[in-house]
Write a structure and sequence with these properties.
alpha/beta; Rossmann fold; 7-stranded mixed sheet
């Protein structure tokens, strides 16, 4: 396995803690905790990072310190420094198309309307893996999408996410161990919630 990069997308700052848009941060935080890793601030990479040695290489976990719409800056810096190709980049982020805690894995191109993914695409090109974690549809049809993704999870939703996290991490590890096709074929034919 070559070096890999798992980027959790979110916005920095306490005011965004537990916001739907920050579910990518929650995923990489849980992965780091499971592996017993410590986060360090890397100013030159504009991200908090944690390194996980694995057979044949390392997995770099990262939470950009840029805001969501500039996530690609940190990804580009980390890919350049660690010599990681886009096909070895996994981006964990929020998706309103799925219920809270459900998830899908894709290698296809496009942004799906997600600004963070769009910025990464503009900075490193295509080929990276999308790890889409459900945060639920808008609470009210007339609600602005930005307001929805910046809203906090309810206590019930946080419990659902907590219950789903072991499965989310299991498939993230499967992705690292067995590759995109294997993980995608198993994950995308199921509903986890």
């Amino acid at each position: 396995m070559a070096n890999s990069l798992i980027i959790g997308l979110g916005n920095p700052g306490a005011e965004y803690d537990l916001a739907r848009h920050n579910v990518g941060f929650l995923v990489v935080d849980a992965f780091a905790k499971e592996k017993g890793l410590r986060w360090t601030l890397s100013k030159k990479h504009r991200a908090h990072t944690a390194k996980c040695p694995m057979e044949g290489g390392s997995v770099i976990l990262a939470k950009p310190t840029t805001y969501m719409n500039d996530s690609g800056t940190a990804v580009l810096k980390l890919c350049s420094y660690y010599k990681i190709h886009a096909t070895n980049v996994i981006v964990a982020y929020d998706d309103i198309a799925f219920p809270v805690g459900d998830f899908r894995i894709h290698g296809r191109e496009g942004t799906g309307g997600h600004n963070g993914v769009g910025d990464i695409l503009s900075k490193i090109g295509g080929g990276f893996i999308r790890y889409r974690v459900g945060v639920g549809e808008k609470l009210h049809p007339q609600m602005d999408l930005k307001d929805h993704v910046l809203s906090k999870f309810s206590a019930d939703e946080l419990q659902i996410l907590k219950d789903a996290m072991p499965k989310i991490l299991e498939y993230l590890q499967l992705l690292l161990d067995k590759g995109l096709e294997h993980a995608m074929n198993l994950a995308n034919r199921k509903k986890f919630i």
